[in-house]
Amino acid sequence: MASALHEEVRAGLRDLGFDEVRFAALPDADVGASLGAWLDAGHHADMAWMERTRDKRADPTQVLPGARSIILLGVNYSLPDAPPVAERPRWARYALHADYHDTIRAGLVEAGRVLERLAGVGPDDYRYYVDTGPVLERGWAARSGLGFTGKNAMLISRTHGNWLFLASILTRLALPADPPIRRRPPPADPAAPGAHAGLLCGKCTRCLEACPTQAFPSPGVVDSRRCVSYHTIENKGIIPRELRPGIGDRVYGCDTCLEVCPWNRFAQEGRRLLLSVRHDLRDLSLAELLALTPERFAVVFRGTAVKRLKLSGLLRNACIVAGNAGDRAHLPALQLLAQHPLPVVRAHAVWAVFRLGGGATLASARAVEADPLVLAEYAAEESRAVAG
Predict the structure, then answer these.
(1) pLDDT digits (tens, 9 = 90+) for 219-236
(2) Structural domain boundaries in the chain
(3) Number of helices (H) and strands (E), helices first, in the chain?
(4) What is the pLDDT of residues 327-378, one digit of tens each?
(5) Ranges of H-type helices in the chain
(6) Judging by beta carbons within 10 Å of its beta carbon (0-12, 13-18, 19+), is residue 220 exposed, middle or buried?
(7) Of 28, 131, 249, 327, which is the active-site residue?
(8) Catalytic residue flag (residue 249)
C-alpha cells in the first residue's frame, strides 16, 4: 500500500530526471534464484567478477547490511531510428551518449539527498549503483513491476520498450513495494536459467531468431561466450574466428535482439535530463576508425562509455568490421595494423587482410612475426587457403 512518503520519494526522484521509479522489498529469494545455475554453466564467460560476487548478487543485504528496500530507477535512452549509412559502423545505442555511468551517477548523488531530506536517513543508510555494483538490477526491476524479463533476457518496459538504463538504490528505509507483473502460473523451477523470461512475449521469438551468433541456448538465457556485445566490449583478447562473420558491421555492442522486439512500438522518447547524446559518433566512418591514433582516440571518445574499451579493443573490432565489409579499399590501413605493436590488433588485422584477398601482401610481416596468437591467425588462414 502506498504511503505519503513513498509517493513523495517517487515524485522527488522523477523530478531529477529518472523516467521510472519503482520499489521492491528486501530480501526476496526469488530474485537471483537462477544466477547460480547460469554461472555454473559458464555463461558469464571470463567475467570473473560475477562469480566472485555471486552471493552478494543473490542477496543485496550482503551489500548493505540491514537494507529493507531497493529503489529501481530507469532512464530512457531511446534514439530515433537512423537508416544504415555505407561505411558507417554500427554502435549500440547506449554508446551514442556521454558515459551514462557519469551522467546518471550525478542524478544518484542528488537522489541520495532527496532521501535524506524527505525520509531523514543518513548517508550511511543507502548505497546507489548504476551498473557498477553487485546488484541484479534487471531482476529487481522486474520484481518491482518496472518491466518484465523478455526472451532476450533484457528488461522490457511496456512504456519504454527495451531502451532503459537501470540504476538502483539500496536503503535501510522501509518503503512499500510496487507489485510486479504477475506470471500465471509461476515457473515450475524458479532456479532454472530463463525461468522468469518471456512473461509478455507470447509466442514471439524474433529476438532469438535474429541473434547473429546464436547466443541464446534457450529463451531468457544469454551465453556470453557467443554474444556480440560481450566479445566487442568485455572480451579484451582474441574474438573466436567462427563468431567474427556474425559481428557484421557492429563495432561496439549489439542491439539486434532489442531492435526486433515488438514492444518497442510502444516506446516513448525519454526526457534525457540525465543523458547527453553524442550524434558525432554515429558519423564516424570505418576508415576513420582504422586510422585512429592514441591521441585521436582520447579526443573523440573522452567522456563516453567507449573509452573503457581502449584503442586496442576498438581497432580490433574495426578490423573485424573491415574484414566483413568486403571493401578492398581498406587493405592499406589493415596492412599497417598487421604490424601494430599489440598482438591483439595484429591478429585481427591479419584475419581481415586475408578476408579481403590480400594475404600475399603480408609476406614481410609474416616473416618477422613471433607472437603465437598472431601466428595462429596466419596458420589458420593458410590452412583455409590450402583447403580451398
Answers:
(1) 999 999 999 999 999 999
(2) 4-278, 284-388
(3) 18, 8
(4) 999 999 999 999 999 999 999 999 999 999 999 999 999 999 999 999 999 9
(5) 4-15, 35-40, 48-52, 54-58, 100-119, 137-143, 206-210, 228-229, 244-247, 256-259, 279-282, 286-290, 294-301, 310-325, 331-337, 343-355, 363-368, 372-387
(6) buried
(7) 131
(8) no
